[in-house]
Structure formats: C-alpha cells, structure tokens
Specification:
The complex is a heterodimer of chains A (about 300) and B (about 120). Chain A has about 300 residues and is an alpha+beta fold. Helix content of chain A is about 40%, strand content about 25%. Classes of the chains: A alpha+beta (about 300), B mainly beta (about 120).
Chain lengths: ~300, ~120
C-alpha cells in the first residue's frame, strides 16, 4: 500500500500540494501521523506502514496505535496522549512500538495541535523518531553508572573525585555515612569542615601544592565522624589525564588507619616501656656508667 | 561517671596522684619472692609517708614507708617501698585516670621483675 491511500483530504489543497506533502512526509526519517481533534488517525506516512505493517485503513479506532505499543508502555502512553487531547498541550513520550517483524523499537513520540482562528484544536500533527540506538546506549550508560556506584559505594574506603584544581564534586556513600554530611556541604573545599582544627591548615597547605603539582600524593590526617570522634585516614590521590597529558580529574581514597596507628603507638610505647624497665633494673649500674664516662671526659 | 580512663603523662605526674587505697587487680611475679608482703598483698594504702599492705591471711597488715622518686636517667617516676620484711622499688609504667579523678589504674614494674596493676578503690 502506498501513502497515496492516506492522503490528506484538505478541501483547499491542490493535488500537487498533496503530492509534495506526501513526498516530504515519506522522505523524512520519522514516522509521521495526523489525527483529528479527538485523536483518531487520519494519516500515516509510508514509513509508519513499512515499520508497523499497518495502513491507515487497518488503523480504524482511537486505540489501534496503542495496541502496537509494548504492553508495559500502553497505559502510560494512553494517559499522556489523553492528557494532551484534553488540554491541548504538546505531546511527548518515549515508548516502544512493535515492528511488522514482531520486535520492539524505542521511539520518541511528539505531537503538536493545529488550531483554527478561534483557537480550537482541529488536528494533531505528530512524529515518532526512532531512538532505539540512543536508548540502548543510554541504558548501557545507566547500567555502567549503576555498576560504578555499586562498586564505589561498597569500597571499604571513603572515595572522592575532584576537578583539576582540587574542587571536589563527588563522594561515595561511605564518605557521607562516615561524616554525616551532604554533597552541598562538602563540594569544593567543604571537606575542611570535617578536619581536625589542629591539622586542617597543614592539610590545606599540602593539597594546595599537590593539586598544582599534578602528581600522585599521600597524606595522613584525622577526619571527624558523625559521632564527633576523629579517626585517622591515609589519603591517596591520583590524577587522571587526557590524551594531551592534561589533568582532567583527581581520584582519591581515604583509608581508616586508626587501628594501625594505635598499634604503632602501642608498639612504640612497648619499646619505650622495655627500655625504661631495662634502665630501671640496672639503674645503679647505669649511674656507674655515667660516672665513668664523666671521669673519662666523654 | 565516664568509664574512659586517660593516660597521664608520666613526665608531668603530680605525686599526690599515687596517694590513697589501691586494690591489686593483677600481678605477675616473675622472679619475685612469692612470700613477700608485696607479692601477697591484695590491697595497698599509700598514705602520707605511710605504707600499709593487706593480704588475705589473718596476720596484721605490714606497715612501712613509701616515697615517689625520680631519676635523670628515667623518663618516669618510680616508687620506693620500705617494709620490715623487704625494701624494693617499682617503676611506674602507666597511670590512667578518669576525667573526674575518681578512678585510677596504676601499673608498676618492680626491680625483681614483678608486674602489678593497681586499681583505685
């Protein structure tokens, strides 16, 4: 069937104009359709027919198009279209249409009403643009983002990303869970709010130099948890670069090393205790050694 | 009352922190004579210049003197104990106190190798 079956029956238009309209409507890559004011289709272009396998003659009834939609999209599409018909507002929706081969493809459906001099809707002109590739690419991107978020949020470390100048624009969930803060509070240089007042100047001075240097760096400092307690964290940051070697962002992690520091402190204390005990048990001898050294002038 | 005990800097430790009744919470004798009063003590009273040890036996408490001493070779004080049965000294390895000072924990290392943890009664 050709689109001539479905030519517009506009009383004032010439045959040549109709031919031109049909030529143009069949040329563009979209499915094109027209309905009356009530939403009953009065025209489909050839691409519609080629894609769906249905001509205008097969498409009698206000709901026929809806039956071609994916079952999961039918109710939503009916609601959105009904809303436009009722209010005269532009129509826009993403949905899946069934092809004549039986598979579904994503389309962006858009329509705008045509009005008479009194402003009354007389017809709707619509298109369906194939967005299957973009939709799949977007879904793949969303999946990747979701996978990244899952990974980043479940790292044992606090993690963050910063612009080349050190403006932090992202933290993982563990950061927020630990600090009890929000991105609004923390973005940019807001992180200084959770630093210990005795250390914040040292940290700011260090990272200001480090951002400019553009080389990986490590730094250890205490961060305040939402319980008010400070834990020591080892920060590691690495710059990522573009093809020209320019830093495009910083990736950083903060690893809680409080226990390790406590163990280090305990070990140092144990050594100090041991040394003191040895001197204590040999105190008289130690004094004799000191006296001897003094006598020898050492 | 806070359960938190804070480590006291042993280089800036006032002598009066040692005074009072102490309970022996744990002890490791090492080469110390197990029959000595300090090895058997379950309680120590460190009064002003006065030392008293109590054990679980029926005997009367052993009494003597004690003093805080410091030595330039040591970065912490030690205690000298003089009883009729023994004279010894013990290095202070740790003193921990609650913020209100009501609870204390004292770790001592004796010249004999005996180690003792005392809790403030």
């Amino acid at each position: 069937m050709s689109s001539s079956d479905s030519a517009i029956s506009s009383s004032g238009s010439s045959f040549a104009e109709q031919e031109e309209f049909n030529f143009l409507a069949d040329l563009i890559p979209q499915l094109v359709w027209i309905t009356d004011a009530q939403g009953s289709h009065t025209y489909f272009n050839q691409r519609w027919t080629d894609f769906t396998g249905y001509s205008l003659r097969d498409s009698v009834g206000p709901d026929m198009w809806n039956n071609l939609l994916h079952p999961d999209d039918q109710a939503r599409a009916r609601e959105v279209w009904g809303q436009s018909l009722a209010t005269g507002t532009d129509y826009e929706i993403e949905y899946r249409f069934k092809s004549r081969a039986g598979d579904y493809r994503w389309f962006l459906g858009q329509a705008r009403p045509r009005r008479d001099a009194a402003g009354k809707v007389t017809a709707w002109f619509g298109t369906c643009t194939d967005i299957q590739d973009q939709k799949l690419a977007r879904q793949a991107l969303e999946r990747r983002e979701s996978e990244f978020s899952t990974l980043a949020d479940n790292l044992p470390q606090l993690a963050w990303m910063a612009q080349p100048d050190g403006h932090i624009f992202w933290y993982n969930k563990r950061w927020y869970d630990y600090t009890g803060t929000s991105l609004a509070e923390m973005q940019g240089w807001g992180w200084s709010k959770v630093h210990h007042p005795d250390h914040v100047d040292r940290v700011v001075a260090f990272v200001t130099t480090a951002w400019a240097a553009g080389e990986p760096f490590e730094l250890t400092f205490p961060l305040r948890g939402q319980d008010g307690e400070y834990h020591w964290f080892l920060t590691r940051a690495v710059p990522t670069r573009d093809a020209h070697g320019q830093v495009v962002r910083w990736l950083g992690t903060n690893t809680d090393v409080s226990e390790m520091r406590q163990l280090q402190d305990q070990l140092a204390n144990s050594y100090a205790d041991l040394e003191a005990k040895i001197i204590f048990r040999n105190l008289d001898l130690e004094h004799q050694v000191v006296q001897l050294r003094q006598q020898l002038g050492r | 009352m806070s359960d938190l005990l804070l480590d006291i800097n042993l280089q800036q430790l006032p002598d009066e922190y040692f005074a009072g009744y102490w309970e022996v919470a744990s002890r490791v004798l090492n080469s110390n004579d197990p029959a000595s009063p300090l090895a058997r003590a379950v309680r120590l009273l460190l009064g002003p210049g006065h030392l008293e040890t109590q054990d679980l036996g029926p005997e009367a408490p052993s009494t003597g003197q004690w003093a805080v001493q410091r030595d330039a070779l040591l970065s912490r004080p030690y205690l000298r104990f003089d009883l009729p049965e023994e004279s010894t000294r013990a290095l202070v390895t740790r003193l921990r106190r609650s913020a209100d000072g009501l609870r204390s924990q004292l770790h001592l290392y004796f010249a004999s190798g005996m180690e003792m943890q005392l809790d403030r009664v």
